[in-house]
């Protein structure tokens, strides 16, 4: 009956089984979610507003009571041994929640003290974490004077003070500009490379694509898709391009087998083709038809497309229809 030793080979960093949450209001925020995150993974939880991401994170970090299901952190069952599970976990919540009238250095040292870390050790870690967060020069400033991006980085530094083996971030980059976001990605990649398992929720598909090896897409309390990022992207067998054309398009466009070619306007072509097909044959046909391509762009972010497909209206119908029409 003893919980598996944390970190034992083969024990997932996070194992969630049939997790359900019904709030007092009657809202069913989670309708039976199962997922597993491997040690060392960088895992994204994607989903639109109200999907249930924060509820899930809230349950894992003991801020929200579950209705049913099981949660294990490195083999430690959350219901049976909450304190041990919590010691393995660091949380960066959606809202900034440190005291603006404290200095970053004190915020970190006091936080560590709260977790029973001796002061000498805490002081040393605070220096390390502030340096990693590029906040060392701000260590003794009133934290209210930090910029939005700095405040976000301080939230991460604080969570790292307890040396968590699993770091969970709820929309760490919401509302920050792309430059700050990139800086935070770098920090998170470093933390992950040093061995910490990371789970984050995000609306930014670009973020998930950039950082994460595995992901789950959640919508209306259910997982609609999960797996390696690469596998999910490969499911999108159709690629879209826009061609800018020199001069006017002919009235009759060539028919290129296996593709869908339409005129977006009098000098732009819109093409959908299987990813396996090469563009040379397309260009050859356009050439024959006397159409000269001046430049081309990819039509959309593929992950974006996947997301829309999985969570949009009629998701049920399209979710199963991932096989390309051209497949044998
Ligand atoms: N404390 C609460 N009491 C009642 N209902 C709640 C509570 N918190 C969340 N909900 C509801 O549960 C559902 C899931 O909300 P949750 O905050 O988990 O979504 P989310 O995926 O984090 O969304 P967002 O991307 O907007 O942060 C929503 O319908 C929400 O209204
Ligand atoms: Mg949320």
UniProtKB/TrEMBL annotation:
PROSITE patterns to which the protein is assigned, alphabetical? ABC_TRANSPORTER_1 (PS00211), ABC_TRANSPORTER_2 (PS50893)
SMART domains for the chain: AAA
Q: This protein is called what?
A: ABC transporter
> ABC transporter domain spans which residues?
14-245
Record key words, sorted: ATP-binding, Nucleotide-binding, Transport
Query: What domain of life does the native source organism fall in?
Result: Bacteria
For whether the record's keyword set contains Transport, the answer is yes
Q: Which InterPro entries does its entry note?
A: AAA+_ATPase (IPR003593), ABC_transporter-like_ATP-bd (IPR003439), ABC_transporter-like_CS (IPR017871), ABC_transporter_ATP-binding (IPR050763), P-loop_NTPase (IPR027417)
One Pfam family of this chain: ABC_tran
Q: Which GO terms describe its molecular function?
A: ATP binding; ATP hydrolysis activity
The species this protein belongs to is Pseudoxanthomonas dokdonensis
């Amino acid at each position: 009956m003893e919980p598996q030793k944390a970190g034992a080979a083969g024990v997932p960093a996070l194992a969630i089984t049939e997790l359900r949450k019904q709030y007092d209001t009657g809202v069913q925020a989670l309708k039976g979610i199962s997922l597993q995150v491997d040690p060392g993974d960088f895992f994204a939880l994607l989903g639109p507003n109200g999907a249930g991401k924060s509820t899930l994170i809230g349950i894992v970090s003991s801020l929200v009571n579950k209705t049913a299901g099981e949660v294990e952190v490195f083999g430690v069952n959350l219901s049976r041994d909450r304190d041990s599970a919590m010691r393995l976990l660091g949380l960066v919540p959606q809202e900034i929640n440190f005291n603006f009238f404290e200095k970053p250095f004190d915020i970190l040292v006091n936080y560590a003290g709260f977790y029973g870390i001796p002061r000498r050790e805490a002081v040393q870690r605070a220096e390390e974490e502030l340096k990693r967060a590029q906040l060392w020069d701000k260590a003794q400033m009133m934290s209210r004077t930090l910029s939005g991006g700095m405040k976000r980085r301080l939230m991460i530094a604080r969570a790292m003070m307890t040396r968590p083996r699993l770091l969970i971030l709820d929309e760490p980059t919401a509302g920050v500009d792309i430059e700050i976001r990139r800086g935070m990605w770098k920090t998170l990649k470093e933390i992950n490379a040093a061995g910490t398992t990371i789970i984050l929720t995000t609306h930014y598909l670009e973020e998930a694509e950039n950082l994460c090896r595995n992901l789950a897409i959640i919508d209306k309390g259910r997982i609609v898709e999960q797996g390696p990022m690469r596998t999910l992207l490969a499911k999108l067998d159709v690629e879209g391009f826009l061609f800018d054309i020199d001069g006017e398009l002919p009235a009759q466009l060539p028919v290129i087998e296996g593709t869908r070619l339409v005129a977006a306007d009098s000098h732009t072509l819109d093409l959908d083709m299987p990813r396996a097909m090469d563009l040379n044959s397309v260009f050859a046909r356009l050439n024959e038809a006397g159409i000269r391509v001046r430049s081309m762009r990819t039509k959309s972010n593929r992950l974006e497309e996947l997301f829309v497909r999985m969570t949009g209206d009629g998701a049920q119908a399209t979710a199963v229809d991932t096989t390309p029409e051209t497949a044998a």
